[in-house]
Amino acid sequence: MQPRDLSAHAPYVPGRGTEEVARDLGLDPDDLTKLSSNENPHGASPKAVEAIEDAAPTVSVYPKTSHTDLTEELAAKWDLESEQVWVSPGADGSIDYLTRAMLEPGDEILEPHPGFSYYSMSARYHHGDANQYEVSKAADFEQTADLVLDTYDGERMVYLTTPHNPTGALFPTEEIEELAESVDDHTLIIVDEAYAEYADEPSAIELLSDYDNIAVLRTFSKAYGLAGLRIGYSCVPESWADAYARVNTPFAASEIACRAALAALADPDHVEKSVESAKWARDYLRAELDVPTWESAGNFVLAEVGDGTAVSEAAQREGVIIRDCTSFGLPGCVRVSCGTEEQTKRAVEVLNRIVSEVPTA
């Protein structure tokens, strides 16, 4: 007995974890600086940590009340009806929910390349397929409606990422509107805003009152510092929001995750601190790294180093973990997450020394 043919499914390649690298190199995890996964270096809000501790005795109970409370809080935050907020286990859970709601077997999605591999993974899990439009290094990773429409061929779902990972490029609101007005009636535009808190741009959620073919993904993993709890959500048009009840996984967002998210929403000062810290760090990285970089609206900076694998491996040996972007199709680049001031300065010092020594690929 064997599973179905999964040969078309490329596995997701995450950034390496601190403990994993420490074991490989025989180092103390506390001596490593991890800037490979775009995590919040300031951690979760103290209010969220307290909520996690308070919720621990209640983990024997299904998260019905907390899920409802979080849904209503998010709906109020974005001035939506509660049915329009689809709480999920991470934003990738929302990707699955939208895929279940939209794709028939054989339907296709259109996704950015480079980009988040789970867009196509989810489509193929649900017996669909994926096509790509190129977010081009030659064009400094600019994202426009025309860029997508040049490749668009009637796909059922089209993914936009703003800020884009791993480049940090924005997809301007007016370009999203142009795209929504240009695609076929059956096409859903999905705007992934995992890093949107770090950008000085309005959310595409504001477009939901005018368009019934846009959905928006959000997460608590980045600016809110709850990556380990896997909690996110999507916002969808009111006209088909009731599909959630038919596609969501029962109780997938845990009691602890929902309670922590509610507490995190109640601590805007922690989010503001995290965002301002990231803005400082990305400015410092762009100013101080001795290699070309791209302007970023996220909590990371893409840098061109010649040989991404060699540079990331060398940095790792010196205790700085960054992301080799070969898996994104950018073998000459690395992505450096925004750390604390101390972490960011250490990364710059190590990387500048390494790129002066590592031969160009």
From TrEMBL:
Pathway: Amino-acid biosynthesis; L-histidine biosynthesis; L-histidine from 5-phospho-alpha-D-ribose 1-diphosphate: step 7/9. Pfam families: Aminotran_1_2. Its EC number is 2.6.1.9. InterPro entries: Aminotrans_II_pyridoxalP_BS, Aminotransferase_I/II_large, HisP_aminotrans, HistidinolP_aminotransfase, PyrdxlP-dep_Trfase, PyrdxlP-dep_Trfase_major, PyrdxlP-dep_Trfase_small. It is an enzyme of class 2 (transferase). GO terms for molecular function: histidinol-phosphate transaminase activity. It catalyses: L-histidinol phosphate + 2-oxoglutarate = 3-(imidazol-4-yl)-2-oxopropyl phosphate + L-glutamate. Its cofactor is pyridoxal 5'-phosphate. Residues 31-351 form the Aminotransferase class I/classII large domain. The modification N6-(pyridoxal phosphate)lysine is found at residue 222. CDD domains: AAT_like. SUPFAM superfamilies: PLP-dependent transferases. The keyword GTP-binding does not apply. Residues 1-23 are annotated as: Disordered. Keywords: Amino-acid biosynthesis, Aminotransferase, Histidine biosynthesis, Pyridoxal phosphate, Transferase. Belongs to the class-II pyridoxal-phosphate-dependent aminotransferase family. Histidinol-phosphate aminotransferase subfamily. PANTHER family: HISTIDINOL-PHOSPHATE AMINOTRANSFERASE, HISTIDINOL-PHOSPHATE AMINOTRANSFERASE 2. This is Histidinol-phosphate aminotransferase. It comes from Haloferax namakaokahaiae. The gene is hisC.
